[in-house]
Amino acid sequence: MFGSLLPFFKYGWYGAGFAFVALIFWLLRHEFQKGPNGYRLPIRKNAVAVIFLFAAVSLAFFFSAVFAENIVPDPFRNYVTLDMGHYGFDTTTNTIKFQMSVANPETERYVPKSMVNDYDVILGIREDSREPPEQGTYQTAINHMKFSTIDMREWKPTSQAELEMFENRCVRFSIFGIPKSDHHEIGATFKPDDFKTIRLFDTRSTGNHCG
Question: Does Transmembrane appear among the keywords (predicted)?
């Protein structure tokens, strides 16, 4: 959340700084106005104090904006995640097709860029239900993928029951990442609950009877 609000803070600080500069010029112009006799009136001491105060406030806002722009880091600029683009079941070829791309993260599903090679990426598929995406038993469609953008991958169901699920049910597609350091073994099916460090990158549902 802080990362998404940071630009608004920066622009607000810049704007406040320039607003105080404009106010200083207005006060100076007012103080240098001529009196009724045509002569310039002496500058009032309290006006000078106010001008210096506004100048200090303007500098404070300006330097705060510079600090936010150049020193305070965006907390998510070094993080990435995975998004599914195209996904679905092709009834003409009886295959599932999906695309995967590296994307800017939502806060709950990011990993540091320096760690993307430490993950095995898995596409899991199951009939959708009221269970959260992190639960249930998934069919392992594609395993041991790299954390990268994929133009298109295909997987062909191997049983009539799987074909019927794609043709007649709402099907959930989920991209998971499991750290390679876990020395995990993924079989034909898997349960996310069985892995303490599994990470859900993206999940979508498609097909008949969805929603």
Answer: yes
b/e for 73-101, b at 16 or more Cβ within 10 A? Answer: eeebeebbbbbbeebebeeeeeebebebe
Cβ pair 127, 171 in contact under 8 A: yes
The token pair that represents 129 in the structure block: 């239900």
- d(C-alpha 8, C-alpha 39), whole Å: 46
Instruction: Using alpha carbons, select from 170, 93, 94 the residue that is nearest to residue 127.
Output: 170
The pLDDT tens digits along the chain (211 residues) read: 444 445 555 555 556 666 666 666 666 666 666 666 666 666 666 766 766 676 676 667 666 666 666 655 556 667 788 888 777 888 888 888 888 888 776 666 778 888 889 999 999 999 999 899 999 999 988 888 888 888 788 888 888 888 888 888 899 999 999 888 876 788 889 999 888 888 899 998 888 777 6
Cβ atoms of 182 and 197 within 8 Å: the answer is yes
Between strands 79-90 and 199-207, the pairing is unpaired
